[in-house]
Design brief:
Shape of chain A: globular
Shape of chain B: globular
Largest sheet of chain A: 8 strands, mixed
Oligomer: heterodimer
Number of helices of chain B: 24
Number of helices of chain A: 5
Largest interface: A-B, 61 and 68 residues
Strand content of chain A: over 45%
Distance between the termini of chain B: 41 Å
Order of helices and strands of chain B: HHHHHHEEEHHHHHHHHHHHHHHHHHH
Number of strands of chain B: 3
Structural class of chain A: mainly beta
Radius of gyration of chain A: 24 Å
Strand content of chain B: under 5%
Largest sheet of chain B: 3 strands, mixed
Strand order of the largest sheet of chain B: 1-3-2
Structural class of chain B: mainly alpha
Helix content of chain A: under 10%
Radius of gyration of chain B: 26 Å
Number of strands of chain A: 35
Amino acid sequence: MQSPILKVSILLAFVLSLCMQVHGQTYTYSDIMRVSLRNSGPIIQDNQVRGYYMFYYVDRVDRKTNAYKLSILDENLKEIASKNLEESKTTILQEGAFDGESILLYFYDTRTKEVTLKSFDKSANLTNTKKMTLTMQPMYVITSYESNEEIETDFVYPLKQKGFVAYTSTKPKSWGYRIDYLPPSGDKTGWTYNSPATESNHASSTFLAADENVIYSSIIKKPSLVSRQMNSYVLGLDAKTGKKVFETQVTDAKYEVSILRGFLDENTGNLLVLGQYYAKGDKEAKAASLGLAYVSYDKTGKQVSAKFLSWADDVSKVLPTNERGKIKDIGYLYFHEMVQTPDGKYYGIAESYRKKASGAGIALKVLAGGGNTGTSVVEMQVGNLYIFRFGKDFSLESAQSFEKTANNVELPDGAEYLSPQLIAKYIAAWGYFDYSFVNPTKDKSTFTVGYTDWEKKKGQKGKLVFGAITAKDGAYTTDKISLETEATRLWISPGKPGYVAISEYNRKAKSLTVRLEKINY
Amino acid sequence: MPNRGLEGGKINLLHHFKVRNGVNIFDYFSKRVLVNHIAISVFFLLFGHIALFAQNDFARDYTPLQPMADSTSEALAQLKARYDSDKLALKSYKGTAREELQYIYEDRYESIKWRMQYKHFYSDPALTAYFRNILNEIYRGNPSIPASEIRFFISRSPWANAACEGEGTITFNFNCLQWLHNESEVAFIICHELAHQQLNHVNNKLNNNIVQLYSKETQQKLRQIYRSGYRVNSQAAELLKTMVYSTKKHSRTHEGEADSLGLVFLKNTSYHPGASLSALMILDSVDKERYDIQASPENWFNFKDYPFKEEWHLEEEGLSMFLVDKKSSFDGKLDEDSLKTHPDCEVRVQKLKGSVPIVDKPYFLQPQQQWESWVHKADFEVIESDLFFDNYSKALYHTLQLLKKYPKNVYLITTVGKIFHLLHKAQKEHEFGKYVEENDSEFDEHYQEILAFLNSLSLNDFPNIGYRFMGNYSAEASNNEDFLYYYLQLAKGADQIEIASMLKKEYLERFPKGKYKDQM
């Protein structure tokens, strides 16, 4: 039978449809038309995969312009729309989002730094285009040594059938940010909020949460681009007008907080902010965090409650027995994601890491007589995955570790001078952690954490596996899918709930295969 | 549910035909079909073979038909000889065109050989005898057909279709019988495919396409396109589009020719020529599901101690549900009418009807009872086809549909259990996707429900649901070896250790030399 596999030949779909079919004998006009896949990715709504985009280079139109084919697939990998586009030859399609009413795609021109947001309606017709020019490359394309903010790869966030908000960086006088609201299809009104240029020399923003009245964003401000001193704020903007409702610093008498995620409390409508905390005056870029922080705000930005869980006292109590008291041995924890389940509990997904000496880096350094080798004398060792469960009041209920093979990440020269936290952000942005994604069901009662692992059993050669940890009814189940392949390149992305999408590019056959694998739980 | 008997078929067809075409072919159907017993006897005496049927009790059980496990060396040798002679005939072609044709011919040869060797065709003696009788009657009336060069196979392909491979092989998909009304319609379909072979349509089309593609003119145009440097693919696509439209146009012409010659062949037999028109009309409906029986999974898989969950229902939320205007969703889509390989059935009927004589000939030359038995078996063989082609979701769907009709049929009950066992095994190996289709809003609505259900089950749901389902029938079905085996496997999977142990004991007592003895 036809398995749920999408084979995208380098000869594109329309070429295949031109094939001559002679009673089962299929002949394609191979080597006549060559079309290459430029970018692909999931189209996300409310943290769930609703479909996928595929962006193909088709033709050279003139010196500066290419013809592209945009293909939209549904959550089952069936092509449901394809559109011909003409864009600059340096355009990439970076993101896709779905708000229930329209599909929004985020195009980025790497030469002009121009972002184009295009939204498509239910007939796959282009209804809205918005262009804006970035004054710097998006965070995910820079080597973030000097940057100190939370590195994100998402820039467009769908609001429930209410359009989208997009976050970009600007440089009016100093480095700032811009928040754009793009209304649903058909509605032409929208707004833009620019960070005040005067208040800080460097500010960046990310999305936290939104309801019909307020869009909440996390703001990080620093005195200068290279400064290690940073302050976190929550910004509330009027969803209809884009006017500032409030801006409040996330802080405490004793601690500074670095924001991880934001949620809306379904009962009170309050904003819940989760993050890591540091001693007042400590610099995140340099110091280790003391623990996890939970702060809630009402719609006016007034702090309602705050709770602090320390690694040393609180977290170490709930780690499994074999890990008890060994929190220091774990090294650092990088929190990838927080998930709130319908019972009001929170799940924090973290991965351990530590900075250690690199044998290869040191050897190279010696051989180079201490000169620049391109490789650092330190490397990052990525360890086990951890899932922390918190109660409604953010009391820590449990923490469980999931063992996987330690993964050594080679770092560029100069990394030895950076803090582990900063390096962690760098390797997260480049996808060097083993964590891949979290994939919740519609009601979020069940979620799956996906990761890759180089599994090595005694006496056997190591093999690449996709690991899945599924949290359901308060219990965890694990599953592993072999990723052994003869393909030139393989990558995984979230699928519809309970599935993972595995893409394989075969250079020899010039084909890309995408398939959905069901996860066991 | 549509009546698939002859009378029901006649009435529906007449209504359909009159309304849509405004023509009256009542004469073909209104006269009572008087079966000439004497003629039938002579017919069978001529063939010297009367197929005897043990009428299956379809309500109780079903035994699948025998597949062709391995073909005779004679049939393979004949296939190879034809392939060699076709290859020799390619000497008149040159260069790349010749290479391409050689490749295509080889591929075709290997494909047929593979199907002969790997159970794609049936070798059931009674079934092959039934079709051999039809074929022999066609050959008898049409000595111009080189019968010795024709290889005829009854295929288990799930599509309601027949095919001429172009090198003397004709395949008739057994599942077609589900849709047809009588033996004469089968005869016309075979005549149509024989006409394609007689007129060498397949090879001519293939050869012409390749010659055109590798002609100096086309290659020169392609070179010019490449040299232009801009919009290369768009220009090449435009060039190919013209060629493809032209090819499809020829295909449609070929179909008309095969209809005409096929009718000539049929008229030379004792079969009713009016069947040519009714067979063509049926082609309009074969893409739909044969039975419109609701097979909602909740009706089947809701148990007291394992209730049907809300999340197993079909949820229409993805982008496929979002995009409503399918036509406007695709830029640069090729013209569908120009891509059709076959003309519309109504057009074909219009062209043919003037040549169909009003005669008093039988629709059946072999006993009608046999026909009805084969049609019933075709219903069951669809499930076997689904399983053979690894489409377990379709197999479950078709099984449940038939189970509505035959609620006590042990084969159907066992097949449901077997599918849940196989899916459990597949999911453990992360091969679920090989056997279950992904949902598609264009599928039949009830099939979408089945797919949504299967796709939302967790690993342990498979044995638990299958075990409970089989448990509901354990009293009446436990004499069946297959039933016992799959019930036991599901009990094991559902952690029903004591029951599994009892079932194992029961199996070994009842079937001490059973086929699953070593898999206990």
